[in-house]
Amino acid sequence: MKKRITLIAAAIFIVITGYIVINIGFRDGTDGNQDNLRTGGEYDHLYHSYAQILAKEDTDKTMTVRLNQETGDFSSDELVLDCSKSGLDFPKWEIGDDIIFYYFKPVDQTSNVSVEDMISGQNLQGAVKDG
Predict the structure, then answer these.
(1) Are 60 and 84 in contact (CB under 8 A)?
(2) For residue 99, with 0-12 CB atoms within 10 Å meaning exposed, 13-18 middle and 19 or more buried, which class applies?
(3) Three-state SS for 107?
(4) Residue 81 contacts by C-beta under 8 Å, 6 or more apart in sequence?
(5) Threshold 0.85, pTM exceeds
(6) Of 46, 72, 81, 126, whose CB neighbour count within 10 A is largest?
(7) pLDDT given at position 129
(8) DSSP assignment of 47-96, as one string?
(9) Distances (CA, A) of 48 to 31, 33, 128
(10) Measured distance CA(129)–CA(123) in Å, rounded
(11) What phi, psi does 100 have (nearest 5°)?
């Protein structure tokens, strides 16, 4: 009988020790579920800007826009947006539409801006446009 109790206690000890080693011993210092919230720096942050569409090029999915507010991200108030990312509904946008486009800061201020997402500027009626 004592042998059985000793074996059960040893088994419980091994299970608890294994749990501690696996769940605490091999952690990388983060909170697990919060891993997707870490950022590596300025070029990992998704920015947004407000603009109006001036021209569209359906063949290469680009559009020329005029920014509606000043931002230090671009050297000009007119720029070319690269909308070739899959998932963007390019055909729905028309010349003259007000848009909000989301992007990662460009390394070169004169290059085309690769757009991550785009929504209608009409969706934010009454909102403060802060860039």
Answers:
(1) yes
(2) buried
(3) coil
(4) 51, 62, 63, 64, 65, 101, 112, 113, 115
(5) no
(6) 81
(7) 45
(8) EEEEEEEEEEETTTTEEEEEESS--TT-SSSEEEEE--STT--GGG--TT
(9) 28, 26, 13
(10) 12
(11) -120, 120
Spans in the chain with pLDDT lower than 50? 32-38, 125-131
Output 73-81 pairs: Cβ under 8 A, ≥24 positions apart. 73/47, 73/49, 73/105, 73/106, 73/109, 74/106, 74/109, 74/113, 75/109, 75/110, 78/54, 79/112, 79/113, 80/112, 80/113, 81/51, 81/112, 81/113, 81/115
Report the alpha-carbon distance of residue 131 to residue 53 in Å, rounded: 17
Collapsed DSSP state (helix, strand, coil) of residue 46: strand
State the pLDDT at residue 69: 79
User: In the prediction, which pLDDT does 113 show?
Assistant: 84
Q: What is the pLDDT of residue 39?
A: 54
pLDDT of the residue at 12: 94
